[in-house]
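Appendix B, example 12.
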Amino acid sequence: MNLQTLHVQSTSGGSTTISGRGRVQLLRLYPGKLPDLDVMFWCGDKPKVLKHDHATSPPALFQYCGRQDSLGIIFPDWSFWGWGELSIEPWKNMLARLIESNKKIKWKSRVPYAYWKGNPAVSTNREELMMCNVSDKHEWNARLYSQNWFKEKMQGFKDSKLEDQCTHRYKIYVEGRGWSVSNKYILSCDSMTLLIKPRYYDFYMRSMVPMQHYWPISSKNKCRDIKFAVEWGNSHPDKAQAIGKAGSRFIQENLKMENIYAYMYHSLREYANLLKFKPEIPEGRAEICPELIASQEGGLWRKFMLGSMVKSPSNTLPCTMPSPLDPSALKALFERNENITTQVTMWEQEYWENLPPDHH
């Protein structure tokens, strides 16, 4: 396969080189196994194609995340091959570090509060979360830290290593401008993830089940929900620990790099089956390969590109993908998750109703 005409629309956070890193690796892993394709890819944090803009024949656009009111083909993001800008190593290395980090502090010996560290300035959602921090007036059971990326970069990110942040019993996931790549790192800590209801989803999030892999948090009542979740977890440590462990296990088992490449492979093959024209190389287009991308990048981007390089072709084809869910099965899945979330909301309401006024 040659991704012969790869059109990439990029935001300030994306470029042809960054977004294409994984796809050129895929070609080395399965050489000649994929047909020629003409692909358009959107690198932004939010979906580009919305349903209300396209009653019929929407453009086929690959992107990192989806939303209920959007259209598009969801694809793994660049961070699986490293994020040089933030000194985050390729996912295979990063996951190994997180697994080792989990062994350092047993769950019941961890700090019994909810932890989050990041840039709150990118969204109202995160700014609201920061209001749940501990203060002389409130104890919402949260320990929240604002990330100064410029300062961290100047210090070599020594105070923001992801593998050093598995120290609390609970960790919070909250979206930024849109979808955030942080979800997989947070879930890998063995901590019970408090997942603030997201608007966006990536290629794996909707397979996760509330109260099995994470604890659902309302986007409207963040502070009260976080306080209750931590109180519940500290009162039911074995159950909370099991949720945290199940979330980590889901990530470790499902987000192996061979599974990431398999997902990419099958997505592109299914897409190719729908093409009604024969892709051709546009005049003046240059051929790209991993070595060329690495030579054009410097610093950590180059290091991570070389470190995640596919060294040889796979001897076997990727695993077989399960059949897609029909509309009724998909609806049942969403309803199950919503019912579980509703049950948690009822527990919380009962908790607050029975709490003495001076404890509110």
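The two ends are 61 Å apart (CA to CA). Residues 197 and 219 are 6 Å apart (CA to CA).
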